[in-house]
Amino acid sequence: MNTYYHSVKLDRDLCRGCTTCLQHCPTEAIRIRDGKAQIDGRFCVDCGECIRYCPHHAKLADYDRLDVLDEFEYTVALPAPSLYMQFRSLEDTNIVLNALKEMGFSDVYEVSAAAELVSEATRKFLAEHDDGDPWISSACPSVVRLIMKRFPNLIDRVLPINPPIEVAARLAAKKAMADTGLPREKIGIIFISPCPAKMTYVHNPIGTDKSEVDRVVALKDVYQKILPYMKAVAGTDYPEIARSGKVGVSWGARGGEASGLFVTTYLAADGMENVLRVLDDIEDRKFSRLKFIELNACPGGCVGGVLAVENPFVSEVRLKTLRKYMPVSVSSIDENDLGALANTEPIEYEAVSTLGSTMEESFRLLGQAERIEKRLPGLDCGSCGAPNCKALSQDIVLGKASENDCVFILKDKIRELGERARELEDDLQGITNADTALSVVKEYARRLNKELGELDVE
Question: How do residues 168-221 score in pLDDT, each as one tens digit?
């Protein structure tokens, strides 16, 4: 794509230039320059970690507001499974689904129902492609984008199956057109998201050329508005419209997707730090006996998204209560669903980590960066505006920073400058001729430039 949309934004007015986001960004996409954070879109995967940790709320998630319901003649809500786990003592998902309709949506289509279809398709795929190496879930767009940027050797191990958000959107749009007779442009398919990464996915889809999701609203915004509608619905003889069971609803929390495959040889990891560690180990072929690997960028799974409301650990407890009397699964694949499940576009490598435009230039710059890194203290303190000394050394060879940005090197240079200033003062003692004094000063300046490098001492 020529243009790339990012849902994680920076509010420069709120940013104070602290290094909190710098230290928590898993892809080293953030730098502090001129007292403000800068997000390098080439490396950002919109995981939302900077939003989670920023103490000044300077990192924001971009998403649509609920007034998008007025943009379409007919609207379908796609509630993420994690929505159900935000509510205390919820025992029936039908209450939430009916409340969404009372709130203004024309219809609902559960993403958890689509998740059950994806689980079934995944079970069949794994049975047919048991080649000894594990397959990686395609559900979390931040994880898939991370693989595309940093782990090109693993791209072929990502499941070629659309994530539940896309499957739900395609089937919901198809159903809405059949039910109403309206053209597609008058129907709004609106996903209720726990994270900003889904907004990025809609604008920059993976595995398809265009997403069928029209708008993405924040789970937290829906939560604030839906509560009175849920209370009203709970007191009525509401219709049962839910089409998902334990398998689909469990996708909202860690391990939920993997557990729906009914196999024991799987691994489930959550949180970007753990995801990176697992991906490194997969590349080193440490998990050859596993069939499936579920990876979630958010801690706790989707319930830990920055657009969710409840503590993810509390949400996991609520999931156990909600699942108690549910059937195992409700939705199953129909022949007409097959087109919604399969990827239609290949997942491709996005080369962003090279220092140069050619292999030769990259090796040359890498050598320069390694030499510079050896001169740095190796403390990875972040005070220079880069997350670590290695990143600073690469910024230096790219002309985006200098060694003087390291406070420890700068401190040493300033101390040396002070010592030379005292030496100059001693040498100037007794000199009364202006030309002679000027000559001495110039000689000291030349020595400083040679020994200390370029240092602005005005």
Answer: 999 999 999 999 999 999 999 999 999 999 999 999 999 999 999 999 999 999
Q: Is the pLDDT of residue 319 over 80?
A: yes
Cα separation, 56 vs 47, in Å, equals: 18
Whose tokens are 């693989």? That residue is: 147
Average pLDDT, rounded, for the chain: 92
Can you tell me the distance from the alpha carbon of 112 to that of 118, in angstroms, rounded to the nearest whole number? 10
User: 270: number of CA atoms within 13 Å, CB side?
Assistant: 18
The pLDDT, as a whole number, for residue 178 is: 97
Instruction: Indicate whether 457 pLDDT > 50.
Output: no
Q: How far is CA 364 from CA 356, 401, 453, in A?
A: 8, 18, 22
